[in-house]
Amino acid sequence: MPEIDALAKRLKRYRQSVRKTQFEFSSEIGISEEELSLLERRKTDPKLSTIQLIASCMDVTVSQLLNTGDDGLPWMK
Question: In this model, does residue 71 exceed pLDDT 70?
Answer without folding.
Answer: no
